[in-house]
Amino acid sequence: MMAITVALPAHMVNLLREHGMSEAWAIAVPASIGVIQVAGRLLMYFFEHHLDVHRANRLILTLLPLALLALLAAPTLGAWQGGLMLVFVLLWGIGNGMLTIVKGTAMALYVSREHMASLNGALGVPQALARAAAPLLLGLLWTPVAGYTSGIWLLLAISLLALGAFILAQRRAAPQ
């Protein structure tokens, strides 16, 4: 998920322009994502008190793939494109905001409380590589004809693999 959360923001303004948003909206929308992330973190408070933490974590990890699906569907919907772009931004912002909390707690919940610090440290290098490579890869996948479509499909596939790995980790941790 680290690659997903850093690849798209670096290209967000151009991607929104490519999807037909006006210049003002293409700049305003990414600027508003930080506020939407805060709203997502507040929504996390609701989830913590009204949902099972494991179910909430699965739900949170589905928000980014759903956002990417909305982004891929937007060009095909004509008059509904603007509304679907809004859905994309809301799902992306809320999901990304909540994901930061899930990332901080998942290791302890599903892998090992005792080794949480060393495991997070070991993940530091792969995460740094993902943060560096993902925006570059998305840029390299851009073409004048297809735009970001191939890259978005790749991000969607990666996010679904990450969701599957997360669900597997939850299931493996359940008997403990």
Structural notes for this entry:
24% of the residues are buried. The protein starts with a helix and ends with a helix. The protein is mainly α. Helices cover 81% and strands 0% of the residues. The model has no long low-confidence stretch (mean pLDDT 84). Helix 2 (12-18) packs across helix 3 (23-50), helix 4 runs antiparallel to helix 5 (81-110) and helix 4 packs antiparallel against helix 8. The chain has 8 helices and no strands. The protein is globular. The protein has helices at residues 2-7, 12-18, 23-50, 53-73, 81-110, 116-122, 124-141, 149-173. The protein has a single domain (2-173), classed as Up-down Bundle (Growth Hormone, Chain: A), CATH 1.20.1250.20.
